[in-house]
Amino acid sequence: MTTPIPATSFADPAPAPRLEQAAAALRSHGFTVEILDDAAAARARIKDLIPEGASVFTGASETLRLSGIDEDINTSGRYQAIRPRVLAMDRATEAAGFRRLIASPDVEVGSVAAVTETGSLVIASASGSQLPGYAGGAARAIWIVGAQKVVPDLDTALRRVEDHCLPLESARAQVAYGQPSAVNRLLILNAEFQPGRGTVLLLREAIGF
Q1: In this structure, are residues 201 and 36 in contact, taking their beta carbons and an 8 Å threshold?
Q2: Which residues contact 39 (CB under 8 A, 6 or more apart)?
Q3: How far is CA 86 from CA 92, 113, 129, 149, 175, in A?
């Protein structure tokens, strides 16, 4: 079976007017949005947004890894980092504790597969481990989103997931875990009803899948 080649258009950063359109739509749906120049700016901003000592869970994300945010959160000692704890747990004997830890942190940080100019966030997952916190379990959620992830609407967002994100994530997962990925679970956030809970740091540059 031939691996699909990711669509080039889904890798191109959206221009400023489209970023502004997406940001305005997200704000109208209750999300807090900041447009930042690049991943370095997001890395610095995260330190202001997350209080020292907070329990923080990071979703598996190339954006977080490439930006250095994953390392900052999980190895700095500044926070109660949840990911290192759950990676050390025995899933067979500590499954209940695992689920509780990842479902309701003070802060969950990650990225998305797409953000629409109509104001929705789309998150795809093979395991679903990051989805409870994003959906409402975490007291706060922060997403760092590269400019190439901005798409016109939900139909295009779902195409981006299947045609662009999945082939790239499958290639990464094959190397990391010895098996391809899959879109087993899909979360679409159309609005945030609790003011200040969901923050999107929308970058002017492309980063991640």
Answers
A1: yes
A2: 63, 66, 67, 68, 69, 144, 146, 203, 205, 207
A3: 12, 24, 11, 29, 21
pLDDT tens for each residue of 35-54: 999 999 999 999 999 999 99
Backbone angles phi, psi at 137, to 5 degrees: -70, -35
pTM: 0.93
d(CA 129, CA 208): 19
| Helices and strands, number each (H, E), in the chain | 9, 10
DSSP structural state of residue 8? G
CB of 137 within 8 A of CB of 9?
A: no
Q: Which residues contact 108 (CB under 8 A, 6 or more apart)?
A: 56, 57, 58, 59, 130, 133, 134, 137, 138, 140, 141, 142
Q: Where are the beta strands (DSSP E) in 37-135?
A: 55-58, 80-81, 107-110, 114-116, 121-125
